[in-house]
Specification:
By secondary structure, this protein is mostly beta strands. The chain contains 2 helices and 12 strands; from the N terminus they run H-E-E-E-E-E-E-E-E-E-E-E-E-H. Strand 5 and strand 6 form a beta hairpin.
Length: 275
Amino acid sequence: MKTYMLASAAIVAGLAGSASAELSFGIDAAVGTWANHSTDTGLQGHRDRKTGKLGLSVANDFGGFVGQVDLNWQALTMVDGDEDATKSIFDLTLRGMRDFGGVQGGVFLGKGEHQDYGDSDEYMSYQFIGFDAEKDMSFGTVYGQLGYLDSRDEYGEGTQRAAFLRVGGDYEIGNGLTVTGAFSMAKGRKWDSDQYGVDILGIELGVEKAIGDNGLSLYGSYEHTKIDVDYSDGYGDEFGTLWVGLKMNLGGDTKRGSKLPNLGQWVAYNANEVE
């Protein structure tokens, strides 16, 4: 974690050091309630946990090429002393984008790690890479992302060698009110074996309300994640998180890329909550 934090600070400082009037910042802070919707596997009976997240995004326009850094951190409370429950997730993403005739397209790559509450699996990391595209529409924006996710942990339990797809958009109703939605899916492996496939589906719905014209907004959202493992009938789990948060956009007019899927959750939940 310390290495990631130092690398993140150095990259953000580099962007700020080349700052222009176009440099833009985004901050996302939220608290939520996490619920396990299945009692067949995973954290059986552990249906309620508190969670919080903090995200920072910095972007700058370098003569038509946009460089961006995203930092995301999430923490979850322990449940009934279960040391295999996910404790925290942190990742760093580097992004490069440019405009292609009205479509903003680019690439992203990142690395992260997740921690549990103290079982014997001490080193758990993941990495990802992919492409994304976004287009402004008369009603808002639409976007799509295609990528690859892999992970490493002592027992090979996390989501591995997974291709993923995400599509989403924003619909501006008016009076500062915006409705958001996204659908994600992934197909990979678990337990370092080609025998056990993993299928992941994710749905996100939200509403955001601007507060004045100073870049501040309040939002509420719901994320639903379903993980199926080709191990035995019913093996897997479903998780839902209800968020209430605050977003702040500062600085210049550089357009930042759309939010990526919660890849850290896909890895951590499969390694810790789904056993």
